[in-house]
Structures are given as C-alpha cells and as structure tokens.
Design brief:
Four copies of one chain form a homotetramer.
Chain A (H helix, E strand, L loop, with lengths): L3 E7 L14 H17 L4 H6 L3 E11 L8 E12 L2 E10 L2 E13 L17
Antiparallel strand pairs in A: 1-3, 2-5, 3-4, 4-5
C-alpha cells in the first residue's frame, strides 16, 4: 500500500448550496472517496473488505476550509497515510483547485467488526512506521 | 391508519443548491419523511417495522415541481394513501408553501423481506379500498 | 448535440442507506450528472450556460426502480433526448448494472432566466424533431 | 443572544448508510441546524441575515464520533458559543442520545460579505467575552 495518493473529482451541482459554493459537509464525503480510491489503487475493494467483516468507521475528523469551491471546479485531493497500525489509520489531506489550497483535513479511521467492536486492521491495511 | 395526513417541515440550508432553491432530489426525501411521520402518527414506528423484517421500498415515483422553494420556507405536505393492499402502498402528495402549490407527486412503495422478495403488507398497514 | 449518450459512475458509499442499497433519491442526482456529462461531451459546460443566464430546472420526473444497487456497483446510464425545443428538454433514461436494468426514468427540464421566468432554450441546446 | 442552546432532532432514514448508522458527514449538517435554530430562538432568521448581506461560513470544524446513531434515534444537541467577536463565532457542541454522548465537535464560523470578504459580525451576533 502506497502511503501517498492523489485523486481528482469534479464538483457536482447538487453538492453546492444557496451560497453558490460546495457545502462544507461534502468535503467529508470527498475525503471518504479519496480513501476508497486509494484502497482501490492498492488492489483493495472496500466493498470486499466489508464482506470480510472489517468495517472502517471515521472516529474523528478535523477540517479547515480555506477557499470556496464551486460547480465547474475540479478538485485534486492529496491523501497521506500518517500511520496505520493497531486498529487505526490516520490520514491527512490537502484539497487543491489547480495550485490553490482549498481545504486541509486529517482524520482517524477505526476498524470495527460487524458487532461494532474495535478490532485490528487486516494485515494488508497496515503500514510500518 | 388514517388515509390522509398532513406534515410540515422547514427547508434546511444544505438542501438548497447554487440556484438558491431546494434541489429537486430533496423532495423525494421530504415525501419519505411524510410517510414515516404518517406511520408514526398511526402508532407505527418504521424502525420497528424493519426490525420485524418488513422493508418498505420505493418502486416508482412521479413528481412535478411547480414552484421553487427556498431556505426559510416552511413546507406543508398533504399525503394520501390511495391504496394499500397486497404488497403495495400507493400514495399521492401535494406540497404547499402557505396556499401555493409547490409540488405534486405520487409513489408506489412495495413491501419486501430481508432477502428482497416482495411480500404481503403486514395487516396493520393495509386499508380497505 | 448527440441525441443519445452513455455515462458510467461508481456508486459512492454515502449514497447508500441502512437497507444497504442506494437511496432512491440519489438516482435523480445520477440523472442530473448524466445530463451534465452529455452537455460536456457536446462541448457545453453547464457552469458556463448558467453564467450566460440560462438555468435548466427539472420541472417533472418519473422513475421506476427495478432492482437495488449497492456500493461497489458501477452503473451505466443511457440517456436520450426525446425532444429539445421551445423552452423544454425531454429526456429518457435507462440505468444498467452490466446487462441488468436497474431503473428507468424520464424527465422534463425547463429553461428559465435568473428571474425564474421560462425562456427559450439557447440555439445550441435545441434539436430538430 | 443566549450563549447556550439545546436542540433535538430525529434521525432521518436517508441520513443512514449501508453500515446501518448515520453517515458521519451528516453530523456537520446537524451542527448547522443547531446553529440556525439557536439564531431563531434568539429572534434572528438566518435567511434574513443573508438578505442583509452577511453570510456565515464554516471555516473549520473538528468532530469526534463516540458512538453510532441510527434511524429511530432522537439526538439532542447542546450548543455553546465560546466566543463571538470580530468576524468569527466559535461554537462547541455535544450530541447526546438520552444520556449517552454520541459525538463532540467544535467549529469556527466566519462572517463574509457577498463578495466573500471577511467582515465584522453584525452587532446582534456579538457576545462579550
């Protein structure tokens, strides 16, 4: 699994709100997409991971919104796994439009089983520090 | 179960889009809320209905959008069960802001079991024609 | 402008609901994406169309949901412009997963100006019958 | 304006995802609702605030998710204004289901004008420290 990953998406019209810009809650969805695509790029299908009984749930997130983005914008998300061991993965993110930094974020994702109990990450999701 | 039901909701900011109005897909969510509230008013908790193994799924919907609605608007949804027997419930809806008709819709909801197989409505959801 | 268009998308995790399938309201968002991508394929940027003062708004929609779709599914949307003259565009849609028909829909999109008044489609969006 | 405010909402079905729980991005929408309702309780209509040219935009947010919540849950949001002067309002939030702490969050909201330029909060939104 590569530690760094870059992913681009086009803002969708329905992701904007009456201020004419992307509603801030949607950035959390973009971050999720970036994590899913990073897994996919590493050969891991998140749907399959869940079928194996490992659920990845966001346990915390911090985001700073520097600039608005709009329908018509292409956003580039740079994702970094800062740590992936035990039951948790720590990511940090930078969201760009061209060279402009639109948002920054970090999150902690925990691995839980179907019963919601925290469990160790499967081997293939771990990274050495 | 009463055949007719009225339900009010306030438009939420994040339900609007960059045109400044409620995104049309959100009206389908409003209709769902109205069905859930109608059940609740009749003493039926939809979460409990699902726990009993009956899932209500929308199998078709038709909607006409007559006027835009905006953040700050209170919408009143008038819901009517046109038919509820066998495995299906047919609803029709009118969405008002004050006396203005904002949207009209109709839908067919089917009852399925956990395996996705169509099944008869539980007795308490049926209505005589 | 081509009358027919095909567009694929991957179901996003957050588009599913507790039934484990894509929430029906999200199909209306998929249809919107397909319209935007059809415009783009024909060289028209919808953001630019709005800047020119033409807003395309959904005035009615009908959808039938034949099969559930899930996270992990790739959906293929076949879109057809049935008519595009005066102030309205009529589309019909078929949504497939592989060869399976997941949903069918049709919609009427109206062209309005910034004040919300219905206006003629710009020339480049019209099609001869 | 009261510094503290409490607000309850029912989880809506479409706010859940295939894990059967509320998708984490929706908590940011709940926080927004709580801010809007706090304003309303103080006699301020956010739609009117925007018409006066003051836009409140989220510039940062931090959230920790302690427990999942589900359709059928009523959530109680306790909101506190930690500071409201200059161009910024700092809120902190606790989200409860009964006595259980479901989530905690804090956010910074900035006041901007129509051009997106940071501006002073209107007097009635300021609080002495």
């Amino acid at each position: 699994m590569q530690r760094e990953f870059e992913f681009s998406l086009d803002v969708r019209y329905y992701e904007t709100d009456a201020q004419g810009v992307v509603h801030h809650a949607n950035y959390l969805k973009y971050l999720e997409l970036a994590r899913v695509e990073q897994l996919r790029a590493a050969g891991h299908d998140y749907a399959e991971i869940e079928r194996q009984g490992f659920l990845l749930v966001v346990s915390s997130v911090t985001a700073r919104f520097h600039r608005p983005s709009r329908f018509g914008d292409t956003l580039r998300i740079r994702l970094r796994i800062d740590r992936a061991r035990g039951a948790r993965v720590l990511h940090s993110y930078k969201v760009y439009r061209g060279d402009e930094l639109v948002a920054e974020a970090s999150s902690v994702v925990a691995c839980v089983d179907r019963a919601g109990k925290v469990c160790k990450l499967p081997d293939y999701l771990r990274l050495d520090d």
